[in-house]
Design brief:
368 residues, four-stranded antiparallel sheet, alpha/beta, 30% helix
Length: 368
Amino acid sequence: MPLGPADLDLVRGLVEIPSVSRDEGEAVEWLVARMRERGFRASVDDAGNAVGEGGQVGQVGQGTVHVVLLGHIDTVPGEIPVRIESGVLVGRGAVDAKGPLAAFVAAATDAVPGVRVTVVGAVEEESPTSAGARYRALHPAPDWCVVGEPSGWDAITVAYKGRLVLDVALSRPARHGAAPGPTVSEEALRLWERVRAAAEAHGGQRAQGGRPRAFDRLDCRLEGMWSGDGDGLAERARLRIGYRIPPGLVPDAVETEVVAVVAEHDGEAGVEVARVAAEEPARTSRTSPLARAFVGAIAEAGGEASFTVKSGTSDMNVLARSWACPMVAYGPGDSAYDHTPMERLALDDYARAIAVIRGVLRRAMPPP
């Protein structure tokens, strides 16, 4: 599908502005200015999000359908020179998730009768705070919500695992390096093995062939480890343990299990557990009016829709708990490039995604 120069400039310009999480201000202001040029009533909200209102703002509750298109404007660190090579836009944030966000703005530029659209460029999605989505979740629920994440132009994401990150700190009296027995680092590793074994015992639903399906498994990883001699009076070690939590489990239950494992620790060190971040799993319906609208719009654009689930998290994990409305995640791009030094977005996919979102908004029109 042809890609207009204005829509190309939009995505390239947004990717060219660095916006590492918690430092998104310049990109937010730039996007607000571009949305105003396109006729949106655009501003920066109290959380620092870029917000553009299109359609019939004053008629909610009088036959108008309200659709929120929320994509995050922040990125992980790592500068990648921005360029276009053989129809592919390369740069940090191209796929996660400035491409989906730019597609939202491009698609919502032309108003659809009876449809009010709110486009949100949310801040801090890549931080544990998710401050942008949490602030928008305090607003009244829309009729439909689409979260901007790369799914591929012909796929729709309907579920995300939850997340839990814990700090496990060990401390014991200092002793001579030649003293017998395990070091505090070895003691920490022994505790980690017990925590991991407890997670593996959960298993998961079995797919054909008898192996647990990856999405239904409780994943547990050692994300970091630090140790040292401390202040000469104590030896310390610290574990950063991250979980990906499938539907059917909640972070509180997993944390309670870790505390129980720690209580049985038989080493010399005292152990403390502290929560760093947590998000509950999110799953939405494949048969909602919004999901059906995507299936129809993808077919109209020449594709065959498929549904996918993700082991990562997104702002859907925040919004699904607060907004009881049809919700999916969607956006152009291959999520395999998320957070990598090769982050890239095929511009043909970007153009197709714009067409699909326009088709979804047309399908949101209330009956005459």
